[in-house]
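Reopening: structure tokens for the TSJ complex, inputs below.
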Amino acid sequence: MSSNYTADNIVVLEGLEAVRKRPAMYIGSTSVRGLHHLLTEIVDNAVDEAINGYADAIEITINSDNSVSVYDNGRGMPVDLHPKLKIPAVQVIFTVLHAGGKFDYTNYSFSGGLHGVGASVVNALSRWLEVRVYRDGKEYCQRFESVSDKKGNITSGKPVTGVEVIGNTRKKGTMVTFLPDDRVFDTVNFDYDLISKRIRDIAYLNSGLKIKLKDDRADKKEEEFCFEGGLSDYVKYINADKNVLFKEPIYISGEKNNIKVEAAFQYNDSNSDIVYSYANNINTAEGGTHETGFRSGITRTINDFAYRFNLLKDKKESLTGADVREGLTAVVSIKMRDIQFEGQTKEKLNNTEARAAVESVIVENFTKFMEAPQNDDVSKKITEKCIKTAQIRKAISNAATKLREGAKQKGVENSVLVGKLANCSGNNKAINELFIVEGNSAGGTAKLGRNREFQAILPLRGKPLNVEKTNFEQVMKNEEYKTILYALGTGVGDKFDISKLNYDKIIILSDADQDGAHIRAILVTFFYRYFPDLIKEGHIYIGLSPLYKVTKGDKMYYAYTDEELKMATEEFGKNYTIQRYKGLGEMNPDQLRETTLDPAKRRMIRVQIGDVQEAEGKIEVLMGDKADARHDYITKYANFNKRDAYEDMVDAKSTGNK
Ligand code: TSJ
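Re-run output (same inputs, fresh job):
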């Protein structure tokens, strides 16, 4: 790719003082994130050397003095003299802001965007920095330091040696070691796990690249990442615990308008999708143009294929983006110049040209793949799956319409379906509450204990149908879910309308045991799958009931946790009685009202899915096919004597007394 990179083509801009004055402008912040930006910058340069085909191994070491070393076995940075400045190229790179290949398009680099601030920024923000170049049989070394004068003024990144030949070597490559300046950063402690995670990504994104990570501090660690299968290995890793539709992920690579596009994808039998995207090895968690291009690329390809081979029953129908997304696991990686980010966390790719480039590379190569005779089986599976999803989508939509019309005709209260729902009498949607209660007996108690003006009770018999293992048609046939759907009033799927929601709070009430935990998880998953907006908008709650009643004379406490039990017994000292509630059904209506239903006294957890991917994994562990994993997880997290347990599971926050 690049050639003749000599001191000639380095563009000179401004000095390092600017960086010291406003570090955040160059590295985002001086927090722990900014600290790791320094390392990313150096590593990116080494990765570039590998991407360009000159290096295949990188070593990163966190040294015992908290400095870090990064080595690549590439060509070694140029040491020849800059023709105008008459100083060695390496020195220019480390001392002149914005000096570096990436400003010169003939030597363009793939690192960049947010991170591509240059090695000089790292130097400016370090106590000291040392670069070693192994080239032409020689080892060169130059050292930079941050020095202060008598008045205490700091000059950072100052060369304290020239570029010296310190020996002969048969090695090739570049090694940079630096110690971040503790006067700049809130912390100078590198986080091994954070680095390890990012290095793993880089290894997946650059197949065959060997990256070693070593921690030489007190708690010694070492890992080596190298994935010959690249993105395909990444997809296999994400899908490891899932049932996949076909064994080998589909791998696509191509280049269009100077944008390199790579993608690997595979389907599994779940009804969610995971798409990870990267631009120049940087994770774009918020997606962006490349991801959009990928999604429209596979949608177009599968649609065209289905159309051409007469697989769609109705020629006028087509598969939507959602139809081809279900069960999709994909990693998309592009490499291009001048990447631009937008979005809340600047993790969304903004370059419009990336969309068309990715879409075109995907359509062209995925179509070839689908049409190749040896892939008949896979193509058929994919198309059939997407068509089935489309049929289910239509079924949901039709069923929802029918339900809505049925409800309109009969009125919710009169419907046979809602026989079990004890609805509230008031019409104020802004305060109405729906309790979904485990068990008929607890349901009965709740009906007696509620405030019928604004509280509705829906008892559930036994365990609800596990929605993770079935499709919406099945879900629609289930009495309980049908009733919930009816009661909510919002409709579902593309008919969903949150403004029609009949209740402000939907509260799941189940026993504080393992079965109860399972029921909560199934219901949370149901809402997550079919009514994600209800979770996002904060309408779904887990109601907490007390575990113990502690009485002494006419004094009495309800304890919701073991800790509260301890506090109560300590206060009472002697001669108290403890009643342990094994289930909601053991309370009488007054007790249930006092402890669990009454907004003034009860406690609830609001279910919040902050990080959908995270929640996804957790819910899948509970709901998926790996029975053993599920058992472990429930035993670990379903201990409701510890009230933050479920909170952790669904990333929910306690709303305290409400
Ligand atoms: F820039 C840096 F200090 F951050 C850094 C750069 C850090 C590390 C660990 C490695 C590197 C780096 C740079 N590794 N490899 C290179 N390669 C070049 O700078 C290079 C070498 C030769 C030629 C040529 O045209 O002969 C061109 C380049 C860009």
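The first helix runs from residue 17 to 21. The two ends are 63 Å apart (CA to CA). Marking as resolved unless the reporter disagrees.
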